[in-house]
Amino acid sequence: MSLHSKRCALAAGVLSLVGACGDEGTTRREPLLPVGAGAAGAAGSPSPGTEWQPPEALEAGTPVALHGQLQVRDGALVNQAGVPVQLKGVSTMWLNWEQSYASSKEALRWLRDNWGLSVIRAAMGIEPTGAYLTNPTQMANNVRTVVRNAIDLGVYVIIDWHDHTAEAHREQAMQYFAEAAQEFGQYPNVFYETYNEPVRVSWPEVVKPYHEAVSAVIRERDPDNVIILGTPFWSQAVDDAADDPVIGTNLMYTVHFYSCEHRAAQRAQAQYARDRQLAIFVTEWGATRADGGTDPSGEVCSDEAQLWHDFMNQQGISWTAWKLDACLDLSCLLRQAAPRVGGWEDEWLNGHAPFVRDRMRE
Fold first, then answer.
1. Active site residues
2. Which of 4, 56, 118, 333 is most buried per CB count within 10 Å?
């Protein structure tokens, strides 16, 4: 059956606050054009010469084949059969700075088959030079490559507006997500993360109205795929959202943590939200300092990270770890010069990568 058919048929057989998240690592490099991306219009539409055909049928045993259309029910992410599901995966690096690993379908397949990855987050940078605000065509194509690969391989994918001042870019976000939902809303693989990390701004006065506006344009085109909403103070203050949630269906809220700095106090905020049946997705975390472990001689705080994972497992919270990249930052999963296509045995793993891999395989 073609993936252009009704999504429901695709899987019918399937049952107080401390240090904030900083730059999540400071590695910078020249942006690369994703494989297969040609010239596009100003809004980032694919070029006429770039032809992509989705698979006619889902590959058996893949995450989307197993779980189908996801939804949020009573504060939990559940699969098409109504059974709670916990997705585990990785986030790309900012796509304006890294595309080699992010665009590799072979690498994504390897992570799926060897680490048990079920979701990848496409982190589309917004603010820096060369990111979406100044280069929307290339950034939309970078995300498009990740999303298409995920659909081909039967894994879930988060389209992340990776911004820290998105309220200043609301019109651009609305235009982008309207187009993304029009293009990909028919596929059960897709999540939308509309605001990566609000900073020191008010939930009721700034962040919530932003989410309401952006979510509305998504829902006009995609009535059911899950939307993930960023929360204040670098997506730690989810308790603010719990007291005044956005009205809508299939909505989740972000929590981000870096375990060398974010500990029991931040878990208490998340627990407060869970006690009020707020659905949480940890779209970014590291067993490092909040800057992404930019000091290669720093520590990996695996004991504290394990406490977070105990909490997430108990609550059934899905997650994507920061970040699929090869650099010296302790949050980079790979050593420099690691193969682009996977095959990452221990000698290629960097920083917190062994911990991430082991938690993903559980």
1. 197, 284
2. 333
Can you tell me which residue has the tokens 């504060």?
Answer: 75
Sign of the C-alpha dihedral computed for residues 228, 229, 230 and 232 taken in this order: negative
In a domain, 28, yes or no: no
In a domain, 245, yes or no: yes
Domain residues for the domain of 299 are 86-361
CB contact burial 257-282 (16+ within 10 A = b; e otherwise): bbbbbbeeebbebbbebbeeebbbbb
- As a 3-state breakdown, the chain gives helix, strand, coil percent values, each rounded to 5, of 35, 15, 50
Beta strands 71-73 and 76-78 are antiparallel
Chain length of the chain = 362
Domain count within the chain: 1
Per-residue confidence band for 33, with pLDDT thresholds at 50, 70 and 90? very low
Asked whether 161 and 126 are in contact (CB, 8 A), the reply is yes
CA 340 to chain centre: 20
For residue 323, say if its preceding peptide bond is cis, omega within 30 degrees of 0: yes
pTM here? 0.89
* Burial class of residue 6, CB neighbours in 10 A (0-12, 13-18, 19+): exposed
Asked whether residue 57 is assigned to any structural domain, the reply reads: no
DSSP run (H or E) holding 240: helix 238-243
Strand partners, 271: none
Cα–Cα dist 38/182, whole Å: 20
Check which CATH number belongs to the domain holding 182 and give it: 3.20.20.80
Residue 70 lies in a domain: no
For residue 169, which phi and psi values (nearest 5 degrees)?
A: -125, 35
pLDDT tens sequence across 228-279: 999 999 999 999 999 999 999 999 999 999 999 999 999 999 999 999 999 9
Write the pLDDT tens digit of every residue in 177-213.
999 999 999 999 999 999 999 999 999 999 999 999 9
Burial class (CB in 10 A: 0-12, 13-18, 19+), 339: middle
